[in-house]
Design goal:
Layout: H1 2-12, E1 17-19, E2 36-38, H2 42-45, H3 60-65, H4 68-78, H5 80-85, H6 89-99, H7 123-126, H8 132-157, H9 159-165, H10 170-174, H11 182-203, H12 215-234, H13 247-257, H14 259-271, H15 281-285, H16 298-318, E3 323-330, E4 344-347, E5 350-358, E6 372-374, H17 392-406, H18 412-424, E7 444-446, H19 482-491
Parallel strand pairs: 3-7
Antiparallel strand pairs: 1-2, 3-5, 4-5, 5-6
Length: about 500
């Protein structure tokens, strides 16, 4: 009998069709539990699903249209007693009400429990009548918020980040100066590390135009995770640095330790707690930020965090040296001198060049004693190998944006505020990688004004790289303004530095 039934089913296989969602699609596990059949056996083999199935493929607009922010707030107020009494807090109480499962904890505690649920087969959920939609949206958002933190933990705990960060002796590669300022530089990179962590979390599928309407929740995530990571990063503030210290090892530890912040965030929010004074789960789900979250792009997060952290470290080392950016004249025009073509960015019709004023070591009796312009230390490493994700265009573009935003005063606080502003506008702060504003803050001098001004030796303001070339700055080179020029000179570590003006024959005023 069994064999004849099997043969009958095999004979009917060509008449059956199966609809199986593709792995990685926007369907959650709860939605993927249903297999759809068609053909002669459809009526007998079709797996029945309750009313909840009509609410699948939900979008942020659905959450907003059906007033889920207000509904969830009212539910939490009305069920405060159940939340307080349940060991798992909010998630347990909501799981009891929506699924009949008081142990739906959604905690990340190393146990076998997770945040999955079977919407189709849940009698409790499918009998919520006019609240089935709302219950399902909250279940999905909770499940996907849990998946978000899980994905971040996996991305940040990967050995790829720590390995990439620890391959080189940073100070020997990107630092070359008469004075040993690298100890200070290495410590200062830690001030930016929390913002980089925040950029990585925002990049993990939560930033961009579609998230614009849910900006308040995105900002809560950024602020909360930055706040949680700060103490972990602060633990390294007193680490001993040496000139050739393995900065990468410390940065790698910082990155991997931040996964503790993600675990803390998940467990606090699932319990219904206010996380680092940024709000509870209502804030983080606001405007449907997670209702259709498709998952963490782990490789993307790794690349973004790695490139911006590495870029920030290089920037801090270069900022201790005579590294600067000059330009503002028309692209392809040599009126102000021929800049180095291999370190140039043409943006909005204006050319900008990256420089390092190198000084000779020891006693030099010829004209080389005044130094010359060269690429910054480690410049030849950019765009390849461990530094493939960082290009000279990133250095210049990022620095220009930082200069436009805050002049020569762009710091870690500015960086954090600018990330928050970008999320409010629906922008993705990680999409530009190392080119993101403030990853680099190399001092910028705009000499475009000199194109039509009477400035001595203005054809030598820019020069190519090499020992036989030395710029002449015989005027208020930066915007034609004395204070701007003085501020640039100070930011570029050139106070009391006579080389740019020793051929002028007069005091240029800076």
């Amino acid at each position: 009998m069994h064999s004849s039934l099997i043969l009958a089913l095999v004979a009917l296989l060509p008449q059956l069709s199966f609809s199986v969602p593709v792995v990685g699609s926007e369907l959650s596990k709860s939605q993927r539990s249903t297999t759809v059949f068609s053909g002669p056996l459809a009526k007998s083999l079709r797996r029945r699903c309750g009313p909840v199935s009509q609410y699948y493929n939900q979008k942020k607009a659905d959450w907003q249209q059906y007033g889920l922010d207000v509904w969830l707030n009212n539910w939490i107020i009305a069920h405060a007693g159940e939340i307080e009494a349940n060991s798992w807090g909010f998630a347990g109480a909501f799981g009891q009400w929506a699924l009949g499962n008081p142990d739906w904890s959604c905690r990340d505690d190393g146990s076998d429990s997770d945040c999955d649920f079977n919407a189709c087969d849940s009698r409790v959920l499918n009998h919520k009548k006019n609240e089935t939609r709302q219950a399902y949206y909250v279940l999905e958002s909770t499940n996907r918020l849990y998946a978000y933190f899980q994905g971040l933990s996996e991305a940040f705990s990967t050995a790829a980040i720590a390995t990439a960060l620890s391959k080189d002796e940073w100070a020997l590669t990107f630092y070359k100066d008469k004075d040993d300022k690298s100890v200070t530089a290495l410590k200062e990179i830690l001030n930016a590390a929390t913002t980089v962590v925040g950029i990585g979390t925002a990049f993990a599928g939560l930033a961009g135009p579609e998230a614009g309407a849910a900006a308040s929740a995105g900002n809560a995530l950024f602020g909360g995770l930055v706040g949680a990571a700060a103490p972990l990063i602060g633990d390294h503030k007193n680490d001993v640095f040496q000139k050739s210290a393995d900065l990468g090892e410390i940065l790698g530890k910082i990155v991997t330790e931040t996964m503790k912040a993600f675990t803390a965030a998940n467990n606090a929010l699932m319990h219904g707690d206010n996380f680092v004074n940024t709000g509870d789960i209502r804030t983080y789900m606001a405007q449907g930020l997670f209702v259709d979250f498709a998952g963490v792009d782990k490789n993307g997060v790794i690349d973004v965090v790695n490139n911006i952290l590495v870029g920030s470290a290089i920037n801090q080392l270069w900022r201790q040296q005579k590294v600067f950016i000059m330009g503002g004249g028309p692209c392809g025009d040599n009126t102000l001198g021929p800049g180095p073509s291999n370190a140039m960015l043409c943006r909005d019709g204006k050319a900008w060049f990256l420089y390092y004023w190198e000084e000779p070591g020891g006693l030099v009796l010829n004209s080389h004693k005044w130094g010359w312009t060269n690429p910054p230390p480690g410049f030849d490493k950019l765009g390849q190998g461990d530094y493939e994700g960082i290009k000279v265009e990133d250095v210049i573009s990022s620095s220009l944006d930082a200069y436009i935003a805050a002049g020569f005063n762009y710091n870690s606080e500015t960086a954090a505020n600018r990330v928050v502003e970008s999320i409010k506008l629906g922008l993705n702060p990680g999409a530009k990688g190392a080119g993101w504003e403030g990853t680099f803050t190399i001092p910028v001098c705009d000499i475009g004004w000199a194109m039509t001004a009477d400035v001595k030796d203005k054809g030598y303001i820019l020069q190519p790289y090499g020992k036989d070339f030395r710029p002449h700055w015989c005027g208020l080179v930066c915007k034609g303004d004395a204070q701007t020029t003085k501020d640039f000179i100070a930011a570029a570590q050139m106070n009391n530095f006579q080389s740019p003006k020793h051929m002028c024959g007069h005091d240029p005023g800076y």
